[in-house]
Amino acid sequence: MSLLYRLGRPTVQAVNALRPRCASTVLRDCSRRSVVDSRKTLVTATQRVQAAATAQETPIEASGFEESLVKRDGRPIYLDVQATAPMDPRVIDAMLPYMTQFYGNPHSRTHQYGWESEAGVEKGRQQVADLIGADPKEIIFTSGATESNNMSVKGVARFYKSKKNHIITTQTEHKCVLDSCRVLQEEGFDVTYLPVKENGLIDLQTLEEAIRPETALVSIMTVNNEIGVIQPIAEIGKICRAKKVFFHTDAAQAVGKIPLDVNAMNVDLMSISGHKIYGPKGIGALYVRRRPRVRLEPIMSGGGQERGLRSGTVPTPLVVGLGAACAIAKEEMNYDAARIRALSDRLINGITSQIEHVVRNGDPDASYPGCVNLSFAYVEGESLLMALKEIALSSGSACTSASLEPSYVLRALGADDDMAHSSIRFGIGRFTTEAEVDFVVDRVVKHVGRLREMSPLWEMVQEGIDLKSIQWAQH
Ligand SMILES: Cc1ncc(COP(=O)(O)O)c(C=O)c1O
Ligand code: FES
Question: Can you give the pTM of this predicted structure?
């Protein structure tokens, strides 16, 4: 059988040695898209990759790091787990029999192949439900969090359209929530985009005041994908329940990473994504509360699978993989959390103890430690990303990484454009090692230092000039 089977229960080291070849650099992700940068020149992602490859780099001193510890296959270190995470080999182990042996259609009721497959799907449903304190009947399988978010926002709004026409969300949601809201606005709905405070968190009183008798839904994400802040979900749930408004949360970056309980938190709809929790891509789930019952208009029409809410044959191997990923996350959440926090502290302390003018974006306490977003003043984020080509990083979300526009999330926090342009997101996950973090700290410190030495602004700062006092010539 496969190498995975021969390994038995993998250790972190074994898992790391086997790390799937999925490290997509931010630049490669968007190879077919072209974008207009803030200076209005057309830049294709391919050109940017070439620029990165040919970037003239002043050689930096040998680091003294054992290269073999951090470079397993000659590819960059993967520090972009918010974009996607490598699959846990135990997940692949669970999925394989459903691709080889148990390949029946889970909706076939007339023979054993169907029953076997159905049993796999129902086990997966139970495992997903167990992770968030739900009943398995409340779990609907989808293709990912994008679909779950579309279903929740558009589905609830459209179902209750005759009675209610107002939706509340925040300015820092994932694009798929924001764009679903824009579509609803075109259909005549009214949407409130709540601002966030400087620390990235919403103000609960502002939320409460925004709720009207005609509000159908509040949609607020649990963990932000760019800055890692954790919104006060239980408090938001309490407010929504008291006001009898449905509460949806996009928990794509939170499920399996922090403890969540849909009942304790009064969540009515919760979006889940497989590939953010070391499961397969192309699968996700939506928790839909049964009591009090949430109704939604389905987006997909067809065979009426998934309680009529999501027609289409349920992909058994993917569901089994998502279930296994949830079961592992539940089992190992405390272990992972402690490891990731230690690595995160190591990264932040390593960088901030050696370079000044580094700002951590987002509330340092109410945040998931595996998502560290830092702004390096007087350094252009894009240049730093290109210099750090030994590390797969992103300046924000993968979907918008082709754009050189500063992040709308950082802007919503009130960051000025310069700081928003100089930000980098470090994503630490289950398979990140200490040696990798040390390597990253070493490279970041060296390259930030080198880029600052080339910056006239940095020179002025060193000379004690207050940049804010300068009258720049206007052309
Ligand atoms: C917060 C958040 N919501 C939704 C998504 C979309 O998830 P999926 O790729 O499963 O559609 C992502 C992925 O980037 C995310 O980070
Ligand atoms: S993949 Fe995360 S923002 Fe699109």
Answer: 0.85
